Scavenger receptor class F, member 1
Amino acid sequence: NLVEMKLLLQAVGALLCCSLSSLNTLDPKGKNVCRSLRDPSTLECCTGWRQEGKDCTIPVCEGEQACLKNELCVKPGVCRCPPGYFGAHCKTRCPSEFWDSDCRQLCPCYPYGRCHPVTGECTCNTNRWGPLCQFPCRCARHGHCDPIYGNCTCDEGWWTSTCAKPCQCMSGGAVGPSCEQLTGRCQCHRGHWGLKCPVSCNCYMSPCNQRTGVCECDPGWWGPSCDRRCNCDLTHSSCDPASGQCLCQPGFQGPYCNKPCAPGTYGSGCMMSCGSCKDNQTCSVIDGACAACDPGWKGTQCNSSCPFGFYGDGCKQTCPHCRKNEPCDPETGNCGSCEPGWTGPRCEEACSNGTYGKACSFLCKPCVSGRCHHVTGKCICEPGFQGESCESEHIHLKAITCLCVCVCSSGIRGAVLAGVLVPLLLLLLAVLFCCLCCGGGPADGKDRSLPHFSLQFYVHLTYALHQTLDYLKSGVSNTHTHT
Ligand SMILES: *[C@@H]1O[C@H](CO)[C@@H](O)[C@H](O)[C@H]1NC(C)=O
Ligand SMILES: *[C@@H]1O[C@H](CO)[C@@H](O)[C@H](O)[C@H]1NC(C)=O
Ligand SMILES: *[C@@H]1O[C@H](CO)[C@@H](O)[C@H](O)[C@H]1NC(C)=O
Ligand SMILES: *[C@@H]1O[C@H](CO)[C@@H](O)[C@H](O)[C@H]1NC(C)=O
């Protein structure tokens, strides 16, 4: 518990420290920020102000100047009633002609409107408009005036700019009692027309234009009174309301528009031809779309060729390397022509049978021990031959780097000799090498003589070695003769 208390205290301390330090960051250019009198390097709020954020914007009214209840401190030492109030205890509302704290401002729209107690903004009375409510509304009894523009909005059933006239829509003919404010036009039921919808249309079962009374035939009917039936296939056409002629939709034809386009054609009037659909399948009579395209074609209608460098089914295959990077046939992938030295439909085969070069049209010269290069026609010789036709042999000096060491071992003598001699020989070489090194080799070009002591040593050593070898030889030959 003690530990917990300690941690808590530390946390609180840190928090206090933080908040104090952040409070202390005053902006030197902030409002009412002054330099301290005691220490000019530090900043503080000027007298009469309290800090808020990085500025000192809160006025202070303290001591004798302290504000009463309901009052607001508006400047250092100055108290006022809140906006819209006045009086010793700020309990009295401002009269309509005033606003602001202590009712110090005159309301300019009085008496035709009221002022907002804080902003002074005008709210006009119902029959006035304008920024200061200075204009009287000109709407009649059934209209309401817009406080900014002064224009009228009419009650239902009234129209004109001042809402002075009643609509008088015909009951039965009109949808409701209200009409357009500018024209006085009522909204008619289907089958009625006229400004106030008094007249029935004369169009069999179809409606008519609400202004002119001209018939607007329903689908499947035609004639001035829409009383004549169309003979068209209405799922694929409409009929001309004046002539009764069938107007076919894309993909259909015939006087009644009931015949789809012939295979291989599509569209409006069947005027378009299908693209290259796969396996000669026909395209959609309406939009020409194919289920899939033939090799070499792409697009919904299969009417665009493969892009440059591609061919085949879905244009997914890459062209081979044709002459000068020319594109291949979009359907087959074959090249028009090949680079020199190459042949075959896709230029993948080198020239053969003694030909070379462009279109394999040149005959190779004889190559005696070699073959002809398919691009250049030059002979490429077999190893060991040279010359333009590989006719002459090539003479090479073969570096002989092979060193043969024969160790002839015959019986024990050989074995002993080898066993003893080889290590001895090695020892001798090592010592010799060491002596030459330690004794100092030729330091420069002038002094090439070996130091005296090492030469002596070398001579002794060689002598000793010879003795040993002689002894060993005789010993071995003795044992040999004994056996
Ligand atoms: C009044 O006039 C204003 C501005 O011309 C316009 O935006 C508004 O729709 C009008 N109101 C009516 C009811 O006509
Ligand atoms: C595709 O149609 C054309 C024209 O109708 C015809 O000449 C061709 O033989 C057909 N090909 C196949 C593979 O059916
Ligand atoms: C393919 O057919 C469509 C539809 O008719 C057309 O808009 C488009 O231009 C045609 N594209 C080519 C490359 O002909
Ligand atoms: C190469 O020559 C042989 C024999 O004359 C012939 O059978 C073959 O078709 C030729 N090949 C080419 C690629 O010309």
